[in-house]
Request: fold
Amino acid sequence: MEEKRYPARDTDRRKRSKKKKNRVNPVVRILRIFGTLILSVIMIVIITGSIFATALTIYILNFADTTTTISLDEEVVISNVSRFFYHNPDYDESDPDSEEWILYYGMKNPVRRSVWVDLDQVPEHVRDAFVYTEDERFYTHDGVDFKRTFVAIARTLLGVKQGGSTITQQTIKNITGDSDADGTKGVERKIREIFRAINVEKIYTKEDILEAYLNVIPFTTSVNDIVGIQAAANFYFKKDVSELNYAEGAALAGMLSYPFRDNPLEHPKNNRRRLNYALDNMLQNGALSDDEWEIAQKQADELQVYGDITYTSVEEEQDIPEDQGVTSWFMDAAINQAVDLISEETGITYEAAEERLRQGGYDVYTTVDINMQKKMEKKMRDKSNFQTWTFDKDKLQSGFVCVDYKGQVLCNVSSRSKKKKSRCYNLVSQGKRSPGSCMKPIASYAPALDQDLITFSSFINDSPIRVDADNDGLEEQWPVNYSEYGESANWSMKDIPTWNMIARSLNTAPARLVQQMTPEYCFNFLKEKLDITTLEDADMGYSGMTVGGLTHGLHLQELAAAYTIFGNGGKKYELTYISKIEQADGKVLYEHGDGFKQAISESSAYIMNKMMQRVVTDSNGTGRYAKLKNTVLAAKTGTSSDWVDLNFVGVSPDYVSAVWIGYGTWKKIPTDQYQNIGEIWKNLFGDVVENEEHHDFEKPETVQELKYCTRTGYIAGYGCGSTDVGYYKDTYIPQTCSGWH
Reply:
């Protein structure tokens, strides 16, 4: 029998059939790819949307201001005076009639006219005119009319500007002053405004909100700042608000969208158009009948506008003298800081903050010692406190400042002449002058002592270092020493104790310390630990950090504040003229707290204090003319190049005070005409310090008072014949001298 065989093509057919089954239809493949792509896009959109939604939520919450409660009280709404107070030096806490704070200065808005009126004094047709012109769903929404808001957004995108704010939102904006003109971003402000409006509606009734609204809205002309419905009725129509007719109420309601353009006094045609708009809205919403609408039109034809003020304005009801005189130097600086703080706390520009302060509503509690301020103003005008002999052509300028150990400025006098203008250039807070050798304790000695690079008695060689001090690529021996009269002095090449280097104000020791720590370190110490704000990158060199050769110099108040660390255990508090700022609703906008930076250790601060006492007590000390009888004084003098600036900083148990003298131009101070800078300080402030509450500094437990060998600078041993008293950290005490000198 013949064997049955399958042809080869059958096998090939099966293989081709199998390949056909594995082959995917191109249309299906395209659909799969397209589906995958669509799914990927959807997933990307979902993920991106989630990220965007999360970011948007965080963004909204950052500006929601849900915790801020806006007060609608009368004094908040119409306050147009900002008041500055000083603490009563005779305040008796046990006496109920004793006032703790006394008015120092009232900052009045000279053009604002505002008189409060209760809602029941406003006729219903006048209320309706404002509601149906500005916010027809006022009685039904919860503070925000989202329908109107969305329509406004849509119209804005189409290039048509339309307001979307409700009466509640407008009230909040006018009370808080939070507007786009303040320099804040519109979206952020709107979010804050929306959440504030919702909060206000939870707390106050619609009647409360409408009453506040009618008293806070501006009816301003180009020359008069008219605020509130009562002042507007009086100004435009010489009427009490209760006497306004249909047309007069509609005329005032209609002008609100653009008061400058639509007020009835300056633009009667524009106002008539807006008046008709208000009346038509009232008719459509049932607030006017057809007959009443006809009556209103006749009233509009006969409308009489005056533009005159007869009512008493708010500022005249405040206890603010009409003529307060010229502001003091302290007051100028306090006003400037108040503006800065309002700007910082509210996120608006300096100019907008200044305008907000001027408009009123702030109570500012200053740190001034009123008796000290008045006394120092008088003493600075006394020529005998400066001159060695009497002469008339005296053009020497001077500034004086006193700070307590919490950083509070107690006194600021920025001229030797009587102040003639308010808010003029303030030498103490705005001037920049060279500190000279007053830079040494804060830039070199203090940080070096804190790092245990030196001790009270450690020896430093009075010889120069080699540096490129002029940044010209050439190294030279630097710095030279100067006598206390400004002449160049030779280097002694001797080893001198640290305290003596400070007392005699030799330049070589701080130069060596700055070289060891680097100028960059000293620069950052001044900026970050001592809050010196006037430094520039160009000051990060040997001259600036060693002898105060700065680009512009320092503010005298910041120099004094830096020295507070030597009397309060090394703590650096924020410098301030203001202890607290309250808004009209009693809410605290700013309060000077107890927070501080530990610039140096408590032991370092005390030892620096002890070394600077030698500036006054040592026979060669540059500040010896400031020595007092009853009170311990630590101090430092500072002289700039060519005897152009002279400084003295005095550290006493209760205060740090500083005085500067010099000219407005680069001119040498004639030493034969003016007294030593230490003596000038004593003439001005010595009697105040002598009558302080405390007369000495308290030594911390971390410091030991020990005898040291004057030959080696080490702790004195049995064989040391010449000793002196020094002060040392209990964590870093020098070795004991062997006595083999």
User: Anything to note?
Assistant: Confidence is low (pLDDT under 50) at residues 312-317.
